[in-house]
Design goal:
This protein is 57% helix and 6% strand. It has 69 residues and is mainly α.
């Protein structure tokens, strides 16, 4: 799997996970996972991007698929 594909999958999960766990006022921001989560737009109702989820997903997928080649 190419690095660009891993980054795209990581970006999808980095946006989807915080939104699935309640957005700005939900469980995600109240837990330890909210530390690396950024809010790209102040007036957005709930758009969040989790930098740790992006990095862990990208690194994990790249290592997993490099190991299987």
């Amino acid at each position: 799997m190419k690095l660009s594909t891993c980054i795209i999958i990581g970006l999808i999960l980095a946006v989807a996970l915080p939104m699935a766990f309640g957005g700005r006022g939900g469980v995600w921001m109240a837990s330890d996972f909210g530390v690396g989560t950024i809010r790209p737009f102040d007036h957005s109702p709930g758009l969040l991007i989790s930098v740790p989820a992006l990095l862990f997903t990208t690194f994990g997928l790249k290592m997993l698929f490099s190991w299987h080649n």
